[in-house]
Amino acid sequence: MSLDALVIEDFRCVVRAELELDTRCNLISGANASGKTSLLEAMFVLGRGRSFRTARTEILIRNGTEAFTLSGKVSGAGRSRPLGMRVGRDGIEARVSGRPVNGLAELATVLPAQAIDPEVHRLVEGGPQERRRFVDWGVFHVEPSFVDHWRRYQRALRQRNAALRTHQPPSVVHAWDPELIEAGQLVADYRRRYMEQLVPHVAEVGTRLLGEPVEIALNQGWSADRTLEEATKLAWVRDLERGLTHSGPHRADLSVRFGGAVARDRVSRGQQKLAAASLLLGQLRCDAEQGSDVAALLVDDPAAELDSSNLERLLAEVVSLPAQLFVTALDPQNPSLQFLPAGRRFHVEHGAVTRLL
């Protein structure tokens, strides 16, 4: 898989940009606030249906306009597929090969994108939702049927919680238990099997980046010595008191440790960034080993929070991956960037993109 071409209109500060991209490496330089990160963000939105910088998609629309549009051409496995999306204040429309998508997750099957940005440390020090999303992204790419069970579980969870909040009779609440338990157990089983494959890859990448393994373990969201059905029954009184479901994969969390300590307790932001990068890069290696499509890896300002030696280790790990690379930098002449493969070079100024090489 490679993103061969990208057209952006009215996205953040970008009025219009057309890029013909290298299948291996693309370096994007420019001053702060020039729009270079917005190019990576547009690629990510086209592949994920959401931003890696904000949960508010509407703020991505350029001021004074009603919508942004993104379109691209992706090639791989002997064929080329166009994809595109329009995001307006009235909603989102997305298409692959000219037909409407069944859900935004379908975009990710065509353009799988992963990002390492200056805020990547949030994967380590942020809340459980970030880490659950990280795990589920990996499961989705090696087990395509996972998303159907995850949606089933989310639907049952919403309905059960709504019945709890509105003080419906117990029979109404419990009517959702069979679906919740069946789908929830399947979600947890998918995650568990994926973690067995992921753990050694993250440990190996962590050793190369930090000098010691990064250790990860998944708490499934209820006691490991009980079934989900048992945990749901035991939590019934607390569910009633608080009006929400306390046991299930929606409460799962990923612990991240290295050097014998919890990674979020490390003082150095640079160490947290490298630990988070170990998770993401380990995941790309794991998914590639299991036959997933080659990803677009977006690396925004890799020099942030890192000294030259750590930056070189990070870029060496990035370059060794079977991924199409998109890297931004303030200074394209930074010696560490010379580790990047030859490819195309772009410069961004006030949202306007110029191809250099």
Fold and architecture overview:
With 357 residues, the protein is α/β, with parallel strands linked by helices. It is 40% helix and 25% strand. Helix 4 packs parallel to helix 10 and helix 7 crosses helix 11. It is globular, with a radius of gyration of 21 Å.
Structure at a glance:
The chain has 357 residues and is α/β, with parallel strands linked by helices. The chain is 40% helix and 25% strand. The longest helix is centred in the middle third of the chain and has 34 residues, at 177-210.
Write the layout of secondary structure elements.
Layout: E1 2-11, E2 14-20, E3 25-29, H1 36-48, E4 67-76, E5 79-88, E6 91-96, E7 99-100, H2 105-110, E8 113-116, H3 122-125, H4 128-142, H5 146-165, H6 170-174, H7 177-210, E9 214-219, H8 228-234, H9 236-242, E10 253-258, E11 261-262, H10 269-289, E12 296-299, H11 308-319, E13 324-329, E14 344-349, E15 352-355
Parallel strand pairs: 3-13, 3-14, 8-12, 12-13
Antiparallel strand pairs: 1-2, 1-4, 4-5, 5-6, 6-7, 9-10, 10-11, 14-15
Keywords for this entry:
single chain; 357 residues; alpha/beta; Rossmann fold; Glutathione S-transferase Yfyf (Class Pi), Chain A, domain 2; 2 domains; six-stranded antiparallel sheet; six-stranded mixed sheet; 11 helices; 40% helix
